[in-house]
């Protein structure tokens, strides 16, 4: 029977050498190849809540960059090219940096703002700010850059460094998102790539408790749900806390800001752009009242006062051609701007204005 070869204990051999050559060898615990430490596994239940404890907890209310519109977290501000979204973003940045009111009526607290205008030049920014500010001094709390690294290539760390030195930081605007998202990792699905890119910006917003607004684009193809018009996959929509879509017909001053999100009420707000001052302001009343052409707007105004009127009654009251009013009412009903029932009577789109009609029937 062959005896197995004797193999010395490496640790014992090292200790013997340490005795013989004490000045040549480092201590055993400082060897170049120590046994790697085992990774410590985090307990996934370390931060678990029980339902009663969660309901008893008192959380601070969310901070708002623009009350009712832009809460802390990650927001998307999307629009078609030349719709005025960059003007809107710059108006908000200037207003928050100075404090006071934005959009003509919304009071905001002052705070430091970082604006990455990555599709502009310093000269164009100066021109636009001069138009918006007029005789008002430029706020020192607004930092502007026209060049910036992508988020995965140092941009995210740079934004964190800026926020670390500004405890009163309130808003970061990135115009546009496509300029900072970085390369898509090889082999990653488009959805996962979009969600990952959005997540880099969202982690900044969540960690610092501020609002981060990404200016983004809408597709050319319209959809019933405005969130489906955002360029990219549903990973864009899923990662955002708040989504705003600015829509303005070409050549018209009035537009609509569509809003939805986790901490905001879903709404459509009518807005008007003043080209002479480069400013946006919110308009009173329903958004539809400001976006219809004159004949449709007149019909809707009349029906708000006299719901259930027929085209004959409407034409008599407005003094318009009866056949024109009949055709226009039919088209408005097809477009969802009016409700039609009772053999040709029309009602405004507000279901509460249709007496005694179940909500499910008001869309017939």
TrEMBL record:
Residue ranges for the region (Disordered) are 333-364
* Protein name, UniProt field: DNA repair protein RadA
Classification lineage? Bacteria, Bacillati, Actinomycetota, Actinomycetes, Propionibacteriales
Basic and acidic residues composition-biased segments: 333-344
A Pfam short name: AAA_25
List the InterPro entries hit by this protein, alphabetically: P-loop_NTPase, WH-like_DNA-bd_sf, WH_DNA-bd_sf
